[in-house]
Write a structure and sequence with these properties.
548 residues, three-stranded antiparallel beta sheet, 20 helices, alpha/beta
Amino acid sequence: MSPSEASAWTLPWRGLGLSSNLDAADQPHPYRLLAGFPGLFDFVEYSAPLSLDETREHASLFPRMWERRQDVPVLFHPVHLNLYGPELESVKALEDLDAHARAVGSAWVGNDIGWWHSGGQPFPGYLYFTPPFTEAGIRDCVAHALHVQSHLSVPLALENPAAFAKRGELHVLDFMARVHERTGLPMLIDLGHLFSYQLAAGLPLDAGLEGFPWDKVIELHIAGGVITRRSGRGYYVDDHTQPVREELFGLLESLLPRCTSLRAVTFEGDGHPDEVALISLRRLRQLVPATPRPPLTLTPVTRDVPALTRESEPWALFETGYGAKQESGGDVEGARAETDFRLAVVAEALDRDWPISRLLLAGTREDLRAFTASKEFRELFEGLGRSPGHAFAAWTRRRLREHPDEGLAAAVTFETFLPNSFMMRPPPAPGPGQVGLSEDVRVGTFPVELTELVFAAKSLRRHLTGRAWACEVLDVSGLEALAQVARRPAPGPWNFVVRRKGRGLEVLTVSPSVLELLRSLAKGPRVVEEVPAPVLAEGRALGLLRRG
């Protein structure tokens, strides 16, 4: 049913909720918490792809959510739904979104006003681009919001975006109020995102609250975050794995009486172990009791969708955000802080697949910025690439053509080749009384000996991180030593050990005796008594062996 066909939107009281990415391995586990502490919270707000089929395929906790949705209602908080940017969402994507929301019974859909993805790629770390808080930004966001709502049969709740830099003459709450006025859509206020703007603008936390239409807010978010300080100012980093700031608990308590249409308060506790999330939820439960409230009735929005003008120049924000251009006027310090955070997220993503090559080719801020300012990186978000890792590989190949370096080429070739190690047949499982390779371990061969380089990369990371803690500066001059090691590979062949680590691969340096054992076990398990006890103990201590 489209909005124009509905006579009214009826929004039930949802109460206190806990967020989830619907991965059974993630913490906190909402259904485990409810089993141990009934009534701790009332609903689950989950993030997932727009497509219900894709969510079913990839979200390991989806079956539990689906089974429990009658007694534990859900709200759908999509990942990378564009409410800003140079292009409107496709009709197919919005049809998927609506079908998804209706299937799970989500009373509304909330999302940050931001540019989340382009060319089929989410921005690394889901770090969306916040629109400038200007009249042009309002017009572009209104076009996006009404376009999305025109394909939804439930309300779209507009969430205030996080901000590092102050761009535009409007306060974020004034910006949100004007977008609401021109769309008629309800709002979702994230308290941490609000804090981020106040810091970026150099304002106290309660600035701008008076005169804002709090009666149009149907949901509040509270989450963990970190305040970092540099050049005399603070920046709020919206890292949900961190503890909730005390200021946000106080802000929530002061705002609850003002939000007369409030339907839900969500704790975004991503990454908090159950026992830690329990502490925050118990505190929030005191502020948001389980007492039911009457439903809220809203008039469906049927306004015409204006043309998307792109006056706010989202691609210029992209170029500034990833360091291709400098901020021209305005908040130069805030823009640099935003770029630095984006570069850190890109580095973390690359290090999963290119831990050595990234240090050698993009170990400094300027070299990393050279990658994110490259055509290979830009093309990724123009629909011409596969992933940041593939863009980095293409950039690396071009760099090596322009500046040949045999040692560096060997490292890049090795890390290019490395994923093929896990395409081999898994090691056979050991039987009773036998020992074999762990399921996530492989032994490979490479024509050049890189043991010293693998060791040097790990050792240098430890050293630089330790020094940074002591002196509050990451001294990257030490990367020169790693470059020296890369230029002196030993002749091969080289037998190496690799295992899965999170979403990446880890190459290990082991003693010759353990390596010899692992090579033999790659062919098949052996009887435990045939393996020297010290070698067996060392291999098990490293987590490389399993017993039948």
